Amino acid sequence: MKVWVDPGRCRGHALCLTHAPEAFEFIDLEDRSIVIDGAVGQVALDVFQTAAKNCPERAIIIEE
Ligand code: SF4
Description:
Blueprint lengths: L1 E4 L9 H5 L4 E4 L4 E4 L9 H9 L6 E4 L1
Antiparallel strand pairs: 1-4, 2-3
This protein binds iron/sulfur cluster.
Keywords: Electron transport, Iron, Iron-sulfur, Metal-binding, Transport
Pfam families: Fer4_15
GO molecular function: iron-sulfur cluster binding; metal ion binding
């Protein structure tokens, strides 16, 4: 499974951090989110799916 945040779509709402703080973090000074190193494989797929569903920009991409 691959999961990433599309930097062209992310607008920094931080809803992904609200839904999955164990999976996403903010890049300092850039006001956008990335997947935490090592989270894929440790965090359950449904956590990523919930974050993706709640991202208003559809910026979280999941490839199963
Ligand atoms: S909710 Fe979506 S647009 Fe907002 S910070 Fe997270 S990935 Fe980016």
